[in-house]
Amino acid sequence: MSNRVIYLDNAATTRVRREVVDAMLPYFTEEYGNASTIYSLANGAKSALQKSRDVMAGILGCDSSEIYFTGCGSESDNWALKAAAEAYRARGNHIITTKIEHHAILHTCQWLEKQGMEVTYLDVDENGLVDPGQLRAAIRPTTILISVMFANNEIGTIEPVREIGAIAREHGILFHTDAVQAFCQVPIRVDEMNIDMLSASAHKLNGPKGVGLLYIRKGVKIRSFLHGGAQERKRRAGTENIPGIAGFGRAAEIAAATMEERTGRERELRDYLIERVLREIPYSRLNGSRTKRLPGNANFSFQFVEGESMLIMLDMAGICASSGSACTSGSLDPSHVLLAIGLPHEIAHGSLRLTLGHETTKEDIDDTIEHLKEIVAKLRDMSPLYEDFMKGGRERRGGKNDVQ
Ligand code: PLP
Predict the structure, then answer these.
(1) Residues ≥6 apart with Cβ < 8 Å to 337
(2) What is the Å distance from ligand 1's center to 13 Cα?
(3) Which one of 41, 83, 269, 298 is most buried, counting C-beta atoms within 10 A?
(4) What is the pTM of this model?
């Protein structure tokens, strides 16, 4: 085992590719013109903006005029929901979403409830999947919007977006999907899937932080979220972040071109990781669907172990990972996603998310598994609950005389 850093938190953010940095650099220095001006110095900025829009349109199968660049995935989610609620208010005040959305959606929905909207938060099954039948049953005459994430950021479950899109279309209801984790990881075609709005973010695909996009189908009436200048066809004011948008475009271009081979490799490594962990670490379980899962996501629970302690010990071994509790927000509540799939609090507390990227190697995975085995064993040795459990087990086994 070496002392290098092993980065297994690609769902949190990713390292910017060298080619992406190179694509961004000219727009800080030589091509610094404001894309809204008419002089030729700004031509480079204008064409970078258009090129990135074209790349995104090619990936999603839409027109480039339907792509709006934003400041992040959270902004795209806020915009889609708040502006749709406002624009379609005369038609109704009901939104359907799920219990496992990212907080950018959940907190926006909670805010909208305070403004008089009604929100249904759909349950998910033990794998984190939304049931299209339940969705259909939740539709009311006043439903104006369905927002279901493409893939979950914690457990990696990929939702039945195509079926959901078909139901939304059948009822004439707008369909938004938060594809921040799925964009360029799985094929997405907005027309075939009946998606009316879609959020994505550059920093999840080896692009820069602070740039996102919202796809808005032509004809969807939502208005501007940021008021000011006429940028983004009068729908999103603010001087365009040209370096960021150029970087997003280049990152998406590479991610889309390498998708099949890159995600195939990640899937193989992920399955190897899952199989070894479940086989070699007792009382462990995989959270999320085994098959309908993002290529780079593995999420485990280890009984009798605290997620935070695991993270600290992994960090000491140079391994970056995430756990299933929201300690960063000052509370040690287990994640809403793990609770929604039915995990009891104590199991949800012992959760660990490992997310792979294009730079992850088999050696990284092997080293991580070896460290993880040691860490879980060490933490269990310190756990009175585990001691009681093992004692109980020995007594039960002794009583039945079944140790042979
Ligand atoms: N939606 C999902 C599913 C995410 O995973 C994230 C980021 O983790 C976001 C939205 C927010 O994206 P951003 O960090 O660009 O605001």
Answers:
(1) 99, 100, 128, 152, 154, 155, 324
(2) 9
(3) 298
(4) 0.95
